[in-house]
Amino acid sequence: MLLRMSTLFLRTLRDDPADAEVPSHRLLARGGYIRRAAPGGFTWLPLGWRVFRNVERVVREEMDAMGAQEVHFPALLPREPYEATGRWTEYGPNIFRLQDRRGNDFLLAPTHEEMFTLLVKDLYGSYKDLPLSIYQIQTKYRDEARPRAGLFRGREFTMKDSYSFDVDDAGQERSYQAHRDAYERIFARLGLEYVIVAATSGAMGGSRSEEFLTPLAIGEDTFVRSPGGYAANVEAVTTVVPESIPFEGLAEAHVEDTPDTPTIDTLVTVANERFPDAGYTAASTLKNVVVTLVHPDGRREPLVIGLPGDREVDAKRLEAQVSPAEIEPFTDFAAHPDLVKGYIGPQVLGTQGKAGIRYLVDPRVVPGSRWITGANEPGRHVFDLVAGRDFTWDGVVEAAEVRAGDPAPDGSGPLELARGVEMAHVFALGRKYAEALDLKVLDENGKLVTVTMGSYGVGVSRAVAAIAESHHDELGLVWPREIAPADVHVVATGKDAAVFEAARSLADELVAAGLTVLYDDRPKVSPGVKFKDAELLGMPTIVTVGRGLAEGTIELRDRATGEREEVPVADGAARVLAAVRG
Amino acid sequence: MLLRMSTLFLRTLRDDPADAEVPSHRLLARGGYIRRAAPGGFTWLPLGWRVFRNVERVVREEMDAMGAQEVHFPALLPREPYEATGRWTEYGPNIFRLQDRRGNDFLLAPTHEEMFTLLVKDLYGSYKDLPLSIYQIQTKYRDEARPRAGLFRGREFTMKDSYSFDVDDAGQERSYQAHRDAYERIFARLGLEYVIVAATSGAMGGSRSEEFLTPLAIGEDTFVRSPGGYAANVEAVTTVVPESIPFEGLAEAHVEDTPDTPTIDTLVTVANERFPDAGYTAASTLKNVVVTLVHPDGRREPLVIGLPGDREVDAKRLEAQVSPAEIEPFTDFAAHPDLVKGYIGPQVLGTQGKAGIRYLVDPRVVPGSRWITGANEPGRHVFDLVAGRDFTWDGVVEAAEVRAGDPAPDGSGPLELARGVEMAHVFALGRKYAEALDLKVLDENGKLVTVTMGSYGVGVSRAVAAIAESHHDELGLVWPREIAPADVHVVATGKDAAVFEAARSLADELVAAGLTVLYDDRPKVSPGVKFKDAELLGMPTIVTVGRGLAEGTIELRDRATGEREEVPVADGAARVLAAVRG
Fold first, then answer.
1. Global pTM?
2. Structural domains in chain A?
3. How far is A279 from chain B (nearest CA, A)?
4. Which of A43, A79, A80, A128 is the best mutation test for B, with the most CBs of B within 10 A?
5. A50-97, pLDDT tens digit by residue?
6. Contact between chains at A71 and B44 (C-beta distance less than 8 A)
7. Which residues belong to any copy of the Aminoacyl-transfer RNA synthetases class-II family profile domain (chains A, B) (predicted)?
8. Which residues, at least 6 apart from A211, have a Cβ–Cβ distance to it below 8 Å?
């Protein structure tokens, strides 16, 4: 295919658009690949759509190769199936809901577990029909509170979502692994670095879940990895729990006046002045943080998190634990006189405590651990308060921040933290959806058994953004060959008709050989502007036909390495083909 | 590609689904091509999705070949651009509207004129950039009052919509013609018969408009054609207007008692009894029909249509004339005492008349024409009431039914009526959208001129339905080669392992040659069921490998013609390839 820049619907921009926050968005907008059309909604221009379709093709080929079958659902769906699984409510404000002219409730589907489950129930009834993996590549909608970072977090985007159906857990494990393997091949072909991390399942439910993260500085997700190969989404990291300590011989708790100790630091200073040999640190204190849980039905519940004073609550880790509820700051001390702001101690907490507020503690708060914490009186703290002896709790929660240097839960060494973007997710859903929607098949013995499912998603539009984000330099985009909008960019410079003839003839020869050629045939544009555009647009191979033609040469340039080479014009096509075909 | 029926996500049904009203829906559902997922929303199963993508490919290839460039817009769009052109209101209840979490208004776009206009305005500014044709293949939404006929009229469907931008009318005419030609090629490749008819522009505005109708008995659109080649959507047919008649010498109007004449027939009988030489017919009477116009802003206005008594008001023709207003029955005679039910006459009508109600007449009501009509008193009619002399009107309206035998407006003979389905529409929009959204470019003289546009749509999902509707027999579907989900259906019958080996080997050979093969490898299914399925599924070529194999032969069958032929197994692949490649 020949794409002539003189007629191509394209305008490159010299300046970054004002609303572009990240490099990929800046370069895709400047290069005329995408254009903002709505809050969180983008229009794909011709070159961008070619990249999109290349990514889609790679995903489709790998899904087909693993034996998954493509289907296609509506995006506009009735409320009822989502009501049956509870997700109509659980999604809260994150989905778009609407009514038709008769007042019936609909949603724009964010994912399709319910519909796939119902479809399989509709068509299949026997263990002989399974295993089955079906997928779609489809437009999805989420009412993001803060659409940002261009294509990374939009309100309308494209995902490949697949669903596996198996009669037993071993089958489900094979389906899960087959998707995981297919995803590894997809990311390799897309030229996207990835780390597979353990993840929490969130609103999806289910037992096992991993994310494919692409390490990127602009990423919203923090993940950890250890020298020994452990990797996890920070929400999924489990704390290494210290051993419990017998109560025997532990000192009695004692309340001390601790005036002017509004912070953990001032408290530690006062404590060490009072007990010079104790060697207290912030980790000796137990901080009790009050938050408001907002349940999907709108109910608001105060909740206290107890954690070592040297750590903050990580809101994303906490939200992953309490999902589908959400977290808001707690401010209503007036309604809870038992909560003495700045001096809250566990003695009044817990559903059985005087304040009657649910109390969850960090896993480090093991029975026998000793703490300095609030005495529930202004200006006073209690010392040597022993967990399990002097106070109890309603449960344990992974809500404390994870720090570089923390031990990996599998003993594989200290964790390092990095930022990444979630590109794909594999979930072992188990039987949650099949049970809610009654998907059963007859097994070998003629008995009805509930099907076990998996759900697997790859962000297709997001992959375009991630590729741009990880394949560019200061001059512009540097597309990997597999997904570049054209195989080669032929640039004709100057005003000499012979140059344009030679360039067009080369372009035609390459098109005839099956390549897609972007041909800069603009008659009145300076060589400087053409070169800048070629660098910005980022085709993997750039051929310049210009002044050298008089000596019978053209220039081949590799966009990624910057290597340039003069080659005889007669060898041009063959050399380009060799470069493209590796 | 090899599609094995033992693992294909497919269940054929012996019985028609209860909700399937038309043959295409029945067969596509029975053949496991589609499945209803929501009111007016369908899921494409694997074979159906292959057909869909084949249609999409044909459309894309022809659009690319004519030089149109593919882009892709969001479907979820903000209110503002549609407000600027008035369509936010004009679409009334026919679009889906919704709000995001901040209460901002959005719609699910039914077409994208506004967004394409704004995009071109954003990127282009000179006559040198034009002409431009850009298109997308995209999911569209309409809140249909009555989704029906399966894929023909859904609430979520796929369209190819393109838009052309030209600096002058001559350019617009070329762009229009280029799309019209491309559509002719598309329908020819899809195997869809079509008639190009003159159409009204409706809510789109614009000057010239034609529809591609596929003649189908289940069609909702009535169109007309004449022996001389005239063809039009019935909404667009213009009446041949009789000549005006001088008033001189015409009798004076006279009121007569006409008791017991509740219908036109009884009135004509009484009139002929009273004046035996007059030879009155129903066409001698002037019927005045009251309707309620519902404007997009909700305002309700009574309107009277005057037309010859031998014709009914055609609601679709009337609605096309008054769009974007809609028509409802008029019932509120109580509020309008000047309207004497059954005896309404034009003397009180018109915005200047006593009743103060707008009055539009059929084009046959020319000055000097004489009528028997209501005298605005119960039981009385007026005779020899002369149009233009005894009464006036506010305008002329094409609202009377068109009948077989009516003259074609271009003099090309009597009209015949047929039913069809609108498959595509080409509109010369003119400058309506460019003016509303201020799309101007600099012309050769450096002067700003408003761009002229066209808008062109092809129903992609509807095309699948229309192909099924027009390519089937009593046994099942009969796909044209270009869009069949597989090139050939290889059926292995019986239990002989050698049969399955030979069938698989043939299938593999055909796949290696580039064909898509549907292979019925189901081990425990009877030959009768397999043959029935093959007929229902409708691949163009069916190969049976079965008992004949012992004598070294297999059977080739052409699904469309029913022709069967025994061929030596060794020639099988070559013969199939010859059939497929024509």
1. 0.87
2. 16-237+417-469 (3.30.930.10), 254-396 (3.90.960.10), 486-581 (3.40.50.800)
3. 51
4. A43
5. 999 999 999 999 999 999 999 999 999 999 999 988 889 888 888 999
6. yes
7. 35-480
8. A196, A197, A199, A221, A223, A233, A422, A424, A425
